[in-house]
Design a protein that fits this description.
The protein is of the alpha/beta class and 146 residues long. Helices cover 42% and strands 21% of the residues. The protein has six helices and six strands. Helix 5 links the parallel strand 5 and strand 6. It starts with a strand and ends with a helix.
């Protein structure tokens, strides 16, 4: 079997758990969640606890201002961006600049200027940005036992 895809996640509001749980529980054979990052320390602690409850390995936690440090220390393949929509472009572009592919939820961003920035960064770095539907994994979150 090939190596697992290594993920980190930034933005830990209500919709983020769908992605965390999918990685640590439902796709554990092929994926691993290395770290989470948010502006709220309580959400970081809660996301780390839930990841372990769902069967994941210990997940590191970082405050949002240490996003670059998280990338440098964890060396993820992919950054999952689940921040407020108006901040998606900041993390998408920075993640690609730091050598990571990105998964974000729709909308990719909130206006044409930010969208163009993402497109330009993708062209410059050669990294991928996949935009997903944020409730794709909701059935896994709300119908599976804890």
């Amino acid at each position: 079997m090939s190596e697992k895809t290594r993920y980190v996640q930034v933005g830990l509001g209500g919709r983020s758990a769908m992605y965390t749980r999918a990685v640590v529980q439902h796709y554990a054979e092929t994926s691993e969640m290395l770290a989470v990052c948010d502006i709220n320390d309580g959400r970081v602690a809660y996301a780390r606890q839930r990841a372990q409850e769902w069967g994941g390995d210990e997940v590191k936690g970082y405050p949002a201002h240490q996003f670059d440090r998280m990338i440098a220390e964890c060396k993820p393949d992919v950054v999952i961006v689940t921040t407020k929509d108006c901040h998606h472009d900041e993390y998408i572009c920075r993640a690609m600049e730091l050598g990571c592919d990105v998964i974000t939820e729709k909308p990719m961003t909130t206006d044409e200027v930010k969208c163009q920035r993402i497109i330009d960064t993708q062209k410059k770095t050669g990294k991928k940005c996949r935009v997903t539907f944020n409730y794709r994994y909701s059935c896994l979150l709300y119908t599976s036992p804890s």
